[in-house]
Amino acid sequence: MPGTAATALEGHRGVRIAGTGVGLAGRVVTNEDLAARVDTTDPWIRQRTGIHQRRYAADDQSLHSLSLTALRNALDDAGLRGADLDLVIVATITPAMACPSTAARLADAVGATPAGAFDLAAACSGFVYGMNLAAASLQTGMYRHVAVVGAEVLSRHVNPDDRRTCILFGDGAGAAILSADQADHRGVLHQSMGSDGGKWGSLYMPRRESDLPEGIDASDTGQPGWNGAYDTLQMQGQEVFKFAVIKTCDMIEQSLAATGLRPADLKLVIPHQSNQRIMATAADRFGLPPEKMYINIDRHGNTSAASVPLCLEEVRRSGRVDEGDLVLFLAIGGGMTWATSLWRL
């Protein structure tokens, strides 16, 4: 895939997922709830997205509180303390403030100071970006334990009157503790990260009129890619859908080709939960049975950077994967960005 940073290293091992945790948003919002407010129906949403409900942060919840719950749960699961962490990475596009970073505040809250800490903004691809960076840093021997958090409060960044976006997005947080491991059979077999900034106008969040893409008339709120509300997600749905279908299939093919694996070798694919039709198309393209493409979009909606760790927590808790299994994580997000991480657990 030209222009994509991809790595397939023989012996790229020695990293394990030591613990996971989630912070669930407190308010369940059904399709019927949205249908009472905008021109839509439960069957319409289900057919086009696969979403039955999504969760919104309660009034007393914030990105920080959801992230902190997820990180504390992940530390408990790993049997570690905050002081054991060497680095904290938070993937989000909905931070409470630009500075300080969410990661720095989390590190302080769990007693990880003076661990390194930073936020990264790769939209829906963010958590997989974070996994790749964490795994690479652990491979160098520089660190022993790295926390990767994906968290969003997208309900506070959608126009509630825009049915093109308000039906899709939800809130939540998930965290994973990645640790160095002496076992040579564990770790990342292949990873990739890519972007195409030329397509940024397909999915973006403007703060002012000067942020709008060329050709967008700020007074025309009915045009594709503009709903009239600043600091909310703007999306050209058809463009994003077409891009995501093609790129998802490309990423799976690239990961398999780089490692010499077949689709049947994968125990599970954990994709960003963008749209059930995108995931079903990719599964069909590679002959993957439905149970190998993990889906929870029906219960959580699209939670951007939180979706992959929310899936990962459910997979581990349900016993869907065992040590030695091959699991492919992948995501596509605004930017446009994309990333894969193929693991032997």
Structure explained in plain terms:
There is one protein chain. The chain is of the alpha+beta class and 345 residues long. It has a single domain (1-211, 229-345), classed as 3-Layer(aba) Sandwich (Peroxisomal Thiolase, Chain A, domain 1). Helices cover 30% and strands 24% of the residues. The chain contains ten helices and 14 strands. The strands form four sheets. A five-stranded mixed beta sheet has the order 1-9-14-13-12, sandwiched between helices. Strands 2-8-7-5-6 form a five-stranded mixed beta sheet, with helices on both faces. Strand 5, helix 4 (102-109) and strand 6 form a beta-alpha-beta unit. Mean pLDDT is 93; it is low at 8-12.
Low-confidence stretches: 8-12
CATH top level label:
Alpha Beta
Strand segment count: 14
Radius of gyration: 19 Å
Query: What integer is the average pLDDT?
Result: 93
Largest sheet: 5 strands, mixed
The secondary-structure element order is EEEHHEHEHEHEHEEEEHEHHHEE
Ends apart, CA distance between termini: 26 Å
At the fourth level of CATH, the homologous superfamily is: Thiolase/Chalcone synthase
CATH architectural group: 3-Layer(aba) Sandwich
Q: Strand portion, in percent?
A: 15-25%
Oligomer: single chain
The CATH topology is given as Peroxisomal Thiolase, Chain A, domain 1
Alpha-beta content class: alpha+beta
Estimate percent helicity: 25-40%
**Helical run tally:** 10
How many separate domains? 1
Protein name: Beta-ketoacyl-[acyl-carrier-protein] synthase III
Subunit structure: Homodimer.
Pathway: Lipid metabolism; fatty acid biosynthesis
Main location: cytoplasm
